[in-house]
Every structure is written in structure tokens, then in C-alpha cells.
Write a structure and sequence with these properties.
With about 230 residues, the chain is of the alpha/beta class. It has two domains: about 140 residues, Rossmann fold, CATH 3.40.50.2300; about 55 residues, Winged helix-like DNA-binding domain superfamily/Winged helix DNA-binding domain (Arc Repressor Mutant, subunit A), CATH 1.10.10.10. Helix content is about 50%, strand content about 15%. It has ten helices and six strands, in the order βαβαβαβαβαβααααα. Strands 2-1-3-4-5-6 form a six-stranded parallel beta sheet, with helices on both faces. Helix 7 packs across helix 9. The termini are far apart.
Length: about 230
């Protein structure tokens, strides 16, 4: 494992990588890509957040390529735990999720980079080396939004409760805090029950709560549930 700021060219060995994604096809694709690059070495794979935490403890890689939406412990929570337990391990998020809430939740959790799936081989290689060197790196579209937010004057930044949630997730959390069921929320917002259930799962993951009761308590403390 490299120390933060260590130049990968000075390691004298390949940069070691663990990939975490619940889709086998994605993991195998990353494995094949890494095997084609002599300076990178895949040392572990994981299909969910709990597994990647254990794989990192066992292998102590330089870099973890992390998906965000995985069963069980999600990628945000896994990132937070890994970076807290192993500060020298760099997390590079590679995901389909490009909303601002996901990007900033990942950064707050300690991720050093954020790419969208579909990045080409050179872009992924550069990102792995960059985060292994202690740098922060974002895909082109993500970087533009990060710079836009950071460039806004302080008065333009809205202080909202649970900024890691999307507007729709906060809307659903408000209904949840009022004690409404998924089916009731679905009818009220003209959504399918499955869509509401997916949003509720994302809310639990982002707020790091175990169930509806815990989510509702936190939401009510923040002033939700009065509508």
C-alpha cells in the first residue's frame, strides 16, 4: 500500500487495485483491463460493500475502484469505513450515478476520484495513478459541476437538511417522516410503489439508518413530516 503523496513511479512495483461492483460483467471487464496494463495489479474483487471492506482489510491495496449502488452496505458507506480505517487506501468511484448528491456524498465519505462508467482505458488508468498519488480526479462532466458549485458565492449555496439526498428523496423523506406507507407515498407523488421503494432504500443508505423508524426520527428532528 502506498502512502498518501507517494509517486506511483517510485513504488518499484505495480499499483495494487481492488474492484467492488455487484455486476460480475463489470468486475471481469475491469480485471481484463487491468491485466493489460503492466503497472497495475488486481489483488481482489467484491460484489457488495461488506465484502469490499473485508477484502481491503486482507489485501491493503493502493486503490479501490468503488461502485456506489450495491446490495447491503452501499458504496458511500463502504468508502467512509475504508478511508477511516485505512487512510492510505485511495477510493476511486466508478459508477453510473452522476447526480450532484451522489458526487458530493462520495467526496465527503473520502473518495479521491469520481468517474462515470464508460470511461475509456486511458482515462481509468490515469485516474487510478492519480488517486494512488494522493491527487483528486473527476471525469470531465463531474469536474465541471464540482467547479461550478465551488465557484458560487457563499450566499448562493442553499443550506438544506440532508444535502446528500436528491430533491425527490427529500420529498419522499418528508412523507416518510409523516408516517405514510410506500403505497400512500406512491399515490401522492404519482410514482410506482417500486420506484418509491428504491428511493427509500437510497435514503436509508445515504443517511446510514437501519429502518423507517430511524429515518423518520432523524427527519422529524430536521423539521420534516409537517406536510
Amino acid at each position: 500500500m502506498s502512502e498518501p503523496g507517494t509517486d506511483v513511479a517510485e513504488l518499484g512495483r505495480p499499483v495494487t487495485v481492488v474492484v467492488a461492483d455487484d455486476h460480475l460483467l463489470i468486475r471481469e471487464g475491469v480485471r481484463a483491463l487491468l491485466e493489460s496494463i503492466a503497472a497495475l495489479e488486481l489483488v481482489g474483487q467484491a460484489a457488495d460493500g461488506d465484502e469490499v471492506i473485508e477484502v481491503v482489510r486482507r489485501t491493503r491495496p493502493d486503490v479501490v475502484i468503488m461502485d456506489l449502488h450495491m446490495p447491503g452496505t452501499d458504496g458511500i458507506t463502504a468508502t467512509r469505513r475504508i478511508t477511516a480505517e485505512h487512510p492510505g487506501v485511495a477510493v476511486l468511484v466508478v459508477t453510473m450515478m452522476e447526480d450532484d448528491a451522489s458526487v458530493f456524498a462520495a467526496m465527503r465519505a473520502g473518495a479521491r476520484g469520481y468517474l462515470l462508467k464508460g470511461a475509456d482505458q486511458d482515462e481509468l488508468r490515469r485516474a487510478i495513478n492519480a488517486v494512488a498519488n494522493g491527487e483528486a480526479i473527476f471525469g470531465p462532466g463531474i469536474a465541471a459541476r464540482v467547479l461550478d458549485l465551488l465557484g458560487r458565492p457563499p450566499t448562493a449555496r442553499v443550506n438544506v437538511a440532508f444535502p446528500e439526498l436528491t430533491a425527490r428523496e427529500r420529498e419522499i423523506l418528508d412523507h416518510l417522516a409523516a408516517g405514510r406507507s410506500n403505497s400512500t407515498i406512491a399515490r401522492s407523488l404519482a410514482l410506482s410503489p417500486r420506484t418509491v421503494a428504491n428511493h427509500v432504500s437510497n435514503i436509508f443508505a445515504k443517511l446510514q439508518v437501519a429502518d423507517r423508524t430511524e429515518a423518520a426520527i432523524r427527519a422529524r428532528e430536521a423539521g420534516f413530516g409537517n406536510s
